[in-house]
């Protein structure tokens, strides 16, 4: 349907918005990659990432960081998640995983036809309590800019439904950048229970076979903090990416 509508828009002479253009480029990049055309894939990937940096990119944030954003953002509203709607066909009433922040929410309140499902306003305290619940459920918090540097959305995501995580992990296209932290393991504290492995959506943790201890690949870690929260033995801590020489530029 999305493709058909794009074709219709071309015929009607409707100029697509920059986000639609970026999605179109990503689609072409993935096709080029599937066909083994590495040169074209790299060109299109670079183009899409540049557009994202200027207009609409996301970054992984921890629960503590996203709660701080709730303290300075207003208004705050829950919204229906576009990715889950597209990839899983979730109905709006079971799909309120996204959050919109800022004055745009008043527009969508007045013209609900411009955003399916409408907006559900929350106080900052309600928003923080709800974020704690979705963190406990294992969802990754991300913020998204809508015209850099304006942060317009907070998302609570899961692979593979999340288009941002999927584009990054499956196709190497970076609309979503890593967070400010990296998870480090204290092997002496680790019991090898494996709870952190299940928690990590970025395939950064596994259980080492001989010692039966967790091991974290810091180059794969996006710094979401979900493993740290889940570990009951305080074996994982988050450290600032920029304090680690080899990872400081790994976004
Ligand atoms: S980025 Fe996350 S919450 Fe936002 S639309 Fe995608 S999956 Fe939904
Ligand atoms: S949750 Fe903690 S104790 Fe369990 S495997 Fe992971 S790091 Fe080790
Ligand atoms: S290792 Fe931990 S902090 Fe890093 S991405 Fe996985 S769950 Fe998140």
Terminus-to-terminus distance? 34 Å
User: Radius of gyration, rounded?
Assistant: 19 Å
The poorly predicted ranges are none
Distinct ligands: iron/sulfur cluster
Number of strands: 11
Mean pLDDT: 91
The number of distinct helices, counting runs of at least 4 residues, comes to: 10
Shape by Cα distribution: globular
* N-to-C series of helices and strands: HHHEHEHEHEHEEHEEHEEHE
Strand content: 15-25%
Structural class: alpha+beta
Q: What does the largest sheet look like?
A: 7 strands, mixed
Domain module tally: 3
Strand line-up across the major sheet: 4-2-3-6-5-1-7
| Helix coverage percent | 40-55%
Overview of the molecule:
This protein has 251 residues and is α+β, with helices and mostly antiparallel strands. It folds into three domains: 2-54, no CATH class; 58-177, no CATH class; 181-243, Alpha-Beta Plaits, CATH 3.30.70. The protein is 40% helix and 19% strand. It is built from ten helices and eleven strands. The strands form three sheets. Strands 4-2-3-6-5-1-7 form a seven-stranded mixed β-sheet. A two-stranded antiparallel ribbon has the order 8-11. A two-stranded antiparallel ribbon has the order 9-10. Strand 9 and strand 10 (213-216) form a beta hairpin. Helix 4 packs antiparallel against helix 7 (124-136). The longest helix has 17 residues, at 18-34. The structure holds iron/sulfur cluster (SF4) (3 copies). One iron/sulfur cluster (SF4) binds at residues 183, 199-200, 202, 204-205, 216, 221-227.
């Amino acid at each position: 349907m999305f493709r058909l509508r794009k074709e219709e828009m071309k015929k009607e002479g409707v100029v697509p918005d920059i986000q639609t253009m970026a999605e179109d480029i990503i689609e072409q990049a993935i096709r080029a990659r599937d066909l083994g055309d590495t040169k074209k894939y790299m060109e299109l990937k670079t183009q899409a990432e540049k557009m994202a940096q200027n207009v609409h990119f996301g970054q992984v944030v921890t629960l503590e960081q996203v709660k701080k954003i709730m303290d300075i953002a207003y208004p705050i509203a829950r919204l229906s998640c576009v990715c889950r709607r597209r990839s899983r066909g979730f109905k709006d009433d079971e799909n309120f995983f996204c959050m919109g922040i800022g004055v745009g929410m008043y527009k969508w309140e007045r013209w609900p036809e411009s955003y399916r499902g409408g907006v559900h306003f929350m106080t900052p305290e309600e928003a923080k309590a709800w974020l704690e619940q979705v963190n406990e459920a294992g969802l990754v918090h991300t913020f998204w800019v809508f015209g850099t540097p304006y942060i317009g959305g907070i998302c609570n995501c899961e692979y593979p439904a999340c288009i941002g995580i999927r584009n990054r992990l499956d196709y190497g296209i970076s609309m979503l950048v890593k967070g400010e932290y990296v998870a480090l393991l204290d092997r002496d504290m680790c019991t090898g229970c494996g709870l952190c492995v299940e928690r990590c959506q970025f395939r950064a943790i596994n259980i080492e076979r001989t010692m039966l201890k967790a091991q974290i690949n810091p180059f794969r870690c996006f710094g979401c903090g979900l493993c740290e929260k889940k570990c009951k033995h305080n074996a994982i801590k988050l450290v600032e990416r920029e304090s680690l020489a080899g990872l400081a530029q790994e976004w």
